[in-house]
Amino acid sequence: MRDEPLLEKLTQIWGVAGFELAVREAIRPEVEPFADELWEDAVGNLIVLKRGRGENRRKIMFAAHMDQIGFMVKTIEENGLLRICNMGWNWAGSAYNERVIFRNGTVGVVGCYGPIEEANNKIEKLFVDIGAKNKADAERMVKIGDCCGYHGPYTHLAGGQICSKSLDDRLGCYQLIEALKENPGDLPNDIYYCFVVQEELGCRGSQVAAQQVQPDIGIAVDITPAHDYPNDLTGSNRIGAGIGIKICDPSVVADEMVTGVMEKLCTEKNIPYQREVIDRGGTDASSMNLVGAGVRTGGICVATRYPHSQSSVVSADDIEAGIDLINAFSAFSFSQE
Ligand SMILES: [Zn+2]
User: Which tens digits make up the pLDDT trace of 152-179?
Assistant: First the structure.
């Protein structure tokens, strides 16, 4: 990989949706030396422009989200247990008995009121146990409205696979940072590398960022669920089978010119890829698509086993192929398309 320590570092930063400050502060010094322009907006997006050269250049916006899924404390019980609500989509079964960490370093374990099988994926059946003796003790560590996210190390599996929390979407942030570093500064397009907030809450940051950038083309750089292992989703996404070129998800239909150019570039440059279709979930492509008078959109997606869990698994090769595709797409001259 180009810079695996950077990817590992990004996955370990605390940044539950709506509270991405530490992620942004880690990314900013990585990108600042390579930017022609860089700004943060009112909702917390970090937008980096690398200008191109030439007459017919397009504005291409790549969006990767800084936020991770998590939970927010809703009430604190007399016995010191914390009742929580979702910050993004969580499977109760994934969270059960897992460790979570608050921004101030307080660690807890997720438990369930009754058998997890009977929770029916209702997060209100879960609680977080931080070891507090009672409500007053808990309140010394955690307040109502504080958030927690999964807590655990970045590790390797066999076959070049990476297992970590928060690969969604710190791997996208990593891909954009690396692509920016490789942008030679004379491309036929202006490239906006956008590190956006609150994707997990409904693609909010990318919408605001796209309103500022007004791109010609908007590309979500994110993970997508894999289907190549026993689970409750079906489709053809496989890990290690190349970078996913988004064709369709329930929130967006990718633009045919965009997907056509991506497939052509992958073929020409021997970048392994797969056509990506999912029937549950979505990405920032959906919000960019509907900004202004409409934006041609697409997605560059890394197939992920066990998404939205403590233990998501991806292929390092797919991540790197994604950077290759971002670079090739950025360098493409769209004047004839
Ligand atoms: Zn994501």
Answer: 999 999 999 999 999 999 999 999 999 9
